[in-house]
Amino acid sequence: MADVPDQLVLKVARDREGRRDVLFRRTAFTAILILLVLGLLNLFGQRPQTSTVDHPAATLELTAPSRVRGGLYYEARFRVDAIRELKKASLVLDSGWIEGTTINTIEPSPISEGSRDGDLVFELGHVPGGQEYVLYLQLQVNPTNVGRHSHDVQLYDGEELLASLDRTQTVFP
Amino acid sequence: MDIVIRAAVMFVFVWLVTRAVGRRELSTLEPVDLILLIVIGDLIQQGVTQNDFSVTGGFLAVGTIAAMTVFFSYASFRFPRLGPIIEGDPVILVEHGEPLMRNLKRNRITLEELAAQARLTAQIAHIRDLEWAVLETSGQISFIPKQT
Predict the structure, then answer these.
(1) What pLDDT digit, counting tens, does each position of A22-73 carry?
(2) Which residues of A touch B6 (CB under 8 A)?
(3) ipTM of the modeled complex
(4) Of B33, B70, B107, B111, which shows the fewest CB atoms inside 10 Å?
């Protein structure tokens, strides 16, 4: 009967004494499955969420993902439902919207763009009462923009603050 | 800096995946195994380099993967206790012509696959003619025939 091949120890190679390879493999595979389930549950983005804030003069609704990953394209949709006439409507976006993010397009183009204390201002202009104004932003996350960023949005009519949405966006690597 | 971190994290993740799926899948080219081997490289490349098309980025990513390979290899060599964790260790599948069903089952190898490998790589027609069959850390099976 031949000897055991060199460097093999029967207790280990045959009987697997002291080896937890199956346990390790199953644990590692379970961890991978958990990761997949978390992905399906939108933990890592990019399913959009809708936030709404009401004011007697207007309703502001934002639909955008609050979790995204580096390099992703996504859309942010701002819907302003004017209950009464808005003479000089404007949206103010926190600087977190633009930091480390590429804006591919804004439709329809605002009347003007500006800066207010470092925040981005889109002037929408006149919105008659009973009408809605929808602004689309097409964005792309720069891969190095990892972390949490403020995505607050405020709706103004002239200098009057009508509605404010507090949101945060998390960018995964 | 990001590309080095991404490459290192991806290296560890792919190592974890390869350890989780089992060594047989990495050395055989059955249709399902082929899918894993083909897509894995393409998918990790996008995660590591992302929009970086630069030569410098390529240097950093390849350098990181090379450094991690050497680091894992050295750790396995320098600290033998880490070897079975990092690379696994050989498993005896056949002893004196008798297949060890428990070890075959733990590695998801059927008798048919074992017999096919014996025919293919060692030109041995019967499992009973094997003195030893050992599943090596590479995922390949070495066959040692009985002495006649």
Answers:
(1) 888 889 899 999 999 999 999 998 899 999 999 999 999 999 999 999 889 9
(2) 173
(3) 0.72
(4) B70
